[in-house]
Amino acid sequence: MARQVARDLAGHEGLLFKKIDSRLKGHIAAELTELAPPGAPLVVNPAIPRLGRCCLGGAVTGAGVDTPIPVAPRLGRALTVPDTRMPEDLAKQLPPQLDGAVLVGAAGLAETLAERLWPEPLPNAPLPLAHPALLAIGSRDPVTLAQVEALRDIPVRAAPNGAYSLDPTDAAHPLLLIRMTPGAEVISGAEAGAAFARTIAAAQARLKPATLFACGGESAAALLAELDVGQLDVLGEALPGVPVARCASGEGFTLVTKSGGFGAPDCLVKLVKFLASD
Predict the structure, then answer these.
(1) What local confidence, expressed as pLDDT, does residue 118 receive?
(2) Alpha-carbon distance 79 to 25, whole Å?
(3) Interatomic CA distance for residues 273 and 216, integer angstroms
(4) Domain 133-276: which CATH class?
(5) Coil, strand or helix: which one is 169?
(6) 150 — pLDDT class (breaks 50, 70, 90)
(7) What is the residue extent of each domain of the chain?
(8) Residue 160 forms beta bridges with which residues?
(9) What's the whole-model pTM score?
(10) Alpha-carbon gap, residue 135 to 225, rounded angstroms
(11) Are 195 and 219 spatial neighbours (Cβ–Cβ below 8 Å)?
(12) pLDDT tens column, 169-219
């Protein structure tokens, strides 16, 4: 896929930003080989300082990172990542002239680039979060588990190994949370993720929620593929690191997503209050 993207981009003018996971998941080195040949100037920084995820000593550290993750080995390049504790540190890393450089980073570097390109952004419009809402928790990250445990008075349905069949009473709830849990049988994460995507897609078709919340990046990606959603129009953020988008294809609905490893313990509590204020 990265090779095809590189072919599609060949000959086009503009900046190239390679979005990566801030904990360096995925096949970053292989993708970067296709998009930026050896010797191409790189601006690399996966830090997201405003969410507490930093780079120190060439490694990702901070919120949601138990053990520092070295950056250079994951990218397959000999490179230096400056210490990054504050958003201002990211701004200092951007070169005066952006032409010719390949930017490689997560949301922090993307936001810094946007602020450089559009120093006076338009004010955000009110975000359309409405009932009924379906909350799909596919992440098993301890950060997310603590956020779910903090919720009160929300019906929670367990989906062992990703599987759950709706109860006839589920449609009566303005807010419903379905969370993936370990099952009796040991299966791969990919199998459980695919099953959970099918479960949530079926619930989406039956309940037709106005707002769908998907927690866990891999879960959200699998769900969008299952729903055949090819385009999202990003509207803003419900909370820091919690983007809101409108699905442009199909019947259309509002999608809220959150990484499994981000957010304060009361993140989901605040989101539910946001929905309840509708």
Answers:
(1) 85
(2) 18
(3) 20
(4) alpha beta
(5) coil
(6) very high
(7) 2-117, 133-276
(8) 181
(9) 0.75
(10) 17
(11) no
(12) 999 999 999 999 999 998 898 899 999 999 999 999 999 999 999 998 889
